[in-house]
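input
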Amino acid sequence: MYQIQVTERTLHFKQPAGTSRGIYTTRKSWFVEISDGHRVGIGECAPLPDLSCDAIPDYGQVLRTFCHELEQQLNQGEPSPLTSHPSPLTSHLSPLQSYPSMLFGLETALLHLQSPKPDEALPVLFDNAFSRGERGIPINGLVWMGSHDEMLARMEKKLEQGFRCIKIKIGAIGFDDELDLLRRLRDRFSADEVEIRVDANGAFTFDEAFDRLVSLSQLDLHSIEQPIRAGEWGDMAELCRNTPLPIALDEELIGVNTAEQKAQLLDIIKPQYIILKPSLHGGMHGCREWIRLARERGVKSWMTSALESNVGLNAIAQLAADIYGEHVTMPQGLGTGQLFTDNIPMPLEVLGEQLWRKQL
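output
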């Protein structure tokens, strides 16, 4: 007999997490537990307020309704929703296409339930070198927004910890101050020594964006995420066509849920990169679809978390290792599980610039 339980939990940041949309001090997640009477699988559903397409006022109620329907279907003897590793979606989960954070949580819980050893301290969702603890995944060191001095200190700390790919959020303290920070870093380290990514979170206007891209490109950066706000496909396409600095799409992908819509976006905008977050971009199924369509068009990608706890972080890390292969070379954005004072305990560890599953 299958049973599904939903538990709401508020996580607390070790320090305020500043973005161009404001400052997060807490993080609300819903944890889904699916039991078959013998084993339990757990997944995390974690929408981001003012960003996720499914960050709705009655989120918990809608999630519980979907879980009740899935529980009934499973108890009627229908096959597991994850019959093909874990794509394509069966009729069980396809209604969740417009609710990516809910879909991701249920995909994670079902994969955990089907794991050969579901009671392990770190759930194995995919069999790969990362999940076996044989290889780490390279990740970027994230520098949150703050004052000029705060960001400088955070940048220094990331370098001391061994990171050689630094991601810096910009768009909040003034462009000149941000250029100063980036120049200081580049004056000390060449692009071969430290890779710099910046994330504007849509903070630039279209009229100012190109000149700012030119200024940033002089610092030999890797890329910029979402220089202008999402939804302006024509303007973003023009930037991507003429940019001196590679552009990565992130928020632009939110709410684009069908394969036809995804192909259209990629064909119109033609970005240099896309960045996938399962909680925002269609769960595991949706991210696989995005990456397949991008590869067909010569567009590169990487994966990142969206401020989930270790439950979500573990799932994204294993998914990234499954998609990109045993030797993940491009740094992923998988360090956010370290941000909370009251995280879900799991043997995940950042060593230098890599995320590892600790051997127990």
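quick obs: The radius of gyration is 20 Å.
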